[in-house]
Design brief:
Number of helices: 19
Number of domains: 2
Order of helices and strands: HHHHHHHHHHHHHHHHHHH
Shape: elongated
Structural class: mainly alpha
CATH topology of the largest domain: Fumarate Reductase Cytochrome B subunit
CATH architecture of the largest domain: Up-down Bundle
CATH class of the largest domain: Mainly Alpha
Largest sheet: none
Radius of gyration: 23 Å
Number of strands: 0
Strand content: under 5%
Mean pLDDT: 88
Distance between the termini: 11 Å
Bound molecules: iron/sulfur cluster
Low-confidence stretches: none
Length: about 375
Amino acid sequence: MAAVTPTIHRSNPGLMKEIQGLGAFDVSACYSCGTCTSVCPLSDGKTIFPRKLITYVQLGLEDKLLQSADPWLCYYCGECTDSCPRKADPAGFMMATRRWLTTKYDFTGISKALYRSHVADWIGIALLSFIAALFIYLLHGPIVTSTVALATFAPVDIVETGDIVILGVLSAFLLVNVFRMYYYTVYTKTGKEIAFTTYLKELFIQLPINFLTQYKIRSCTPGDNRDWFSHWTRFAGYALLFVLAVFLMYEWQTDQFYPLWSPIMLIQYVAAGLFFFGLSAPLYGRIKKTKNMYKYSHATDWMFLLMLLATGVTGVLIVIFRYALLPWDTYIIYSVHLMLVTSLLVLEVPFAKWSHMAYRTFAPYFARLAELKEVGEAV
Ligand code: SF4
Ligand code: SF4
């Protein structure tokens, strides 16, 4: 890949307002004392934040901010906000910057609309729920009321095909966004060319470890693994539910009633347990405002959590109604569940909160590539 010509950074005087509109408390109060950077457990000799990023915003250096993967390396422990003498809330600034970057990686403009307008959020949810309801109405199978026959009402081959189509489309959007992230954070950086073998070597070193362990969050709160554990259980719950929905659908969505302690039921209990346990910390924390990271929630954070909760609760109700032999209740709650899942996946995976799982996973990889490029060790 050819080296690019050095960029001239233009100033965007409205950048501060854009970031503040996405939740930053008041970074205009910052007088660059550097305390936040010195206390940040994740800021080191290679990645220095948050003051550097605040300076970019104060100077309106949009290109420089866009070229930085650093906001994704912050895990919102809140240390910097606690120690800021100006109450500028640098941790909230880092969160708002991640939202801003999400809107920049997305080429459709949907992300920007979702983060900036509650009306757009509600229209999106209503529209997608309506589309899902229409598909259920048109494609559902016979409605058996003498018993609960969920797989007859919602034929698995149709639901699975829908799953695969949605998954394919959303993955394509997300991959384009990740590619744009790569373009900004690595490709536009000046320096030496990166050898293909370096791309591969770093890919295999950085990606699987970060994705599976989510270990970076542990460095954010040294000696206290609670945040990491809560984050990891949420991640493991999503992963297990994904496996159930995509690879094991024929096993659990059947008309057959498995014993409550059969292996397939146990997998569902574990997935639900991880999911609700992981969800409880951010929900409780936001209600009680237990930590800095929960004090200044953006409306989209609440919407995401409440949609997750509603999806989880309807998922559990399907099993309860089914085993209570309530056919109509089961079919109705199953339909509501599908409507919620569709809205949640389509809006959140490529365009909003859930996209952070991809950006956070790729950020250390891209940061490493950018570093190798800058120091000239890439070939
Ligand atoms: S501690 Fe506060 S005032 Fe000091 S650089 Fe950080 S944000 Fe600015
Ligand atoms: S929230 Fe924590 S990890 Fe993020 S910049 Fe502040 S101190 Fe660093």
